[in-house]
């Protein structure tokens, strides 16, 4: 059985909640996954998984949050060829770059050779009730459908 990882950076708990809902979706589809904060492990650990999903909130107008920077920079040392990945996160639509950190992270993973799902999940703040199933479905589709990659 494939090994999956859902890792996230969260300050207010919004992106953590999205990550937990994604894990619920993966688990409901019969797959096992590890859930970790990016502050608790080295980016090289993603190599131990068949696929991984990275969650990051956006700080300010499209910037990466401080506690995510070490993880982001560690990615430069990795060869992610053959690894499936997807990116999700939370942000604020009042900024010009809504969830810009999600886009930056997806580009970094592509640069390192990962097969990144073209679908990115972007949620404003914390998921509303109707968005919670969207989060679960995002995880289900990633692990079961052999997500289209670009």
Short description:
InterPro entries: Flav_short, Flavdoxin-like, Flavodoxin, Flavodoxin/NO_synth, Flavoprotein-like_sf. This protein has 150 residues and is an alpha/beta fold. 35% of the residues lie in helices and 21% in strands.
Describe what this molecule looks like in 3D.
The structure is a single chain. By secondary structure, the protein is of the alpha/beta class. It has one domain: 3-Layer(aba) Sandwich (Rossmann fold), CATH 3.40.50.360. The chain has helices spanning 14-28, 66-74, 100-111, 129-144; strands at 4-9, 33-37, 51-56, 84-91, 115-116, 121-124. Strands 1, 2, 3, 4, 5 and 6 form a 6-stranded parallel sheet that branches. Strand 3 (51-56), helix 2 and strand 4 form a beta-alpha-beta unit. The longest helix is centred in the C-terminal third of the chain and has 16 residues, at 129-144. It is globular. Keywords: Electron transport, Flavoprotein, FMN, Transport. Residues 4-143 form the Flavodoxin-like domain. It comes from Paenibacillus amylolyticus. Pfam families: Flavodoxin_1.
């Amino acid at each position: 059985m494939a090994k999956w990882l859902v890792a996230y950076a969260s300050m207010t708990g919004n992106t953590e909640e999205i990550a937990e809902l994604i894990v619920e979706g993966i688990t409901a589809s019969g797959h096992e996954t590890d859930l970790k904060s990016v502050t608790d492990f080295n980016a090289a650990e993603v190599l131990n998984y068949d696929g991984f999903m990275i969650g990051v909130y956006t700080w300010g107008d499209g910037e990466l949050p401080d506690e995510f920077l070490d993880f982001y920079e560690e990615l430069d040392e990795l060869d992610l060829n053959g690894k499936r990945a997807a990116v999700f996160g939370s942000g604020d639509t009042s900024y010009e770059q809504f969830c810009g950190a999600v886009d930056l992270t997806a580009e970094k993973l592509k640069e390192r050779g990962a097969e990144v799902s073209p679908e990115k999940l972007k949620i404003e703040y914390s998921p509303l009730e109707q968005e919670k199933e969207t989060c679960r479905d995002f995880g289900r589709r990633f692990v079961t459908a052999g997500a289209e990659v670009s």
